[in-house]
Input
Amino acid sequence: MKILLIKTSSLGDVVHNLPVASDIHARFPQARIDWVVEESFADIPRLHPAVANVIPVAVRRWRRNLFSVSIWRELRAFRAAVRTEAYDLVLDTQGLIKSGLMARLAQGRRAGYAAEVAREPLAARCYDDTYVIPKNLHAVERNRWLAAAALGYEPDLPLDYGIAAAPLAADWLPSTPYCVLLTASSRADKLWPEADWLQLAAALNARGLACVLPGGSAEERERAARLASGMAAAVAAPPMDIAELAQLLAGAQIVIGVDTGLSHIAAALGRLTLCLFAGSRPELTGVYAGDTAINLGAAGAPPTAAEAIAVTGELLGT
Output
């Protein structure tokens, strides 16, 4: 059996689709699983041992340069790559027009969300088979239920993201146990006040934990450096790719972050994770890994530093 998964972005959404690969592999151990994903997130499905081939797509970059000859060359190469295999199932868990069109390019029975539950109803026209999956489920479970419906099994297996990463070995890391603070987000309304980060860091330092603050863009790294300079034991991390960030998270005692894809990676890796919400709702897309992953706050109602410190203590067991 050959199966193509289509879940291209964003980072958190890609992480939420990892249990689909685990479920399929558990039910069909001999199945070949390929995955279409945005090039910047390709390292995530590569962490899953059941994923045989990752097919990068670059819609975000392509649409900025549609008149470039090189872009059209890349588009043709992607079309050839996605049509190399004849799949028994092409499963689009994204539910967008762009992902539906990618499904149409592939060879095989195409399945996805029905129009009434897809994020973009027109996407349903791209599939041979559609399924009505409740919209009030967490994104992880919606993906799992869709795969189960398309392949004819019950979605009753224990949750398994299926990924692991070796702790990062780097000479700039603290010599003491560390936590990771994910202070950056692509949306300003998701950020947590800097004064609250400093209070939280003080509580973590008092527990003997140094703080590591990564950042993606130059602006995010500048913010991380500014915050780290106000903490007793902290380091602002150098630029890292997603695979290295996964290793950094894997070695942390606890990860505390705003609503960002890296928080979801931490939860998927089984790290103690506290996700702080300020501009989005956690019910359907928050971190999701049982008692080890906690969502705190809500859109327009960010948690206080005292609340975050209390929940951190609960997670750490003291």
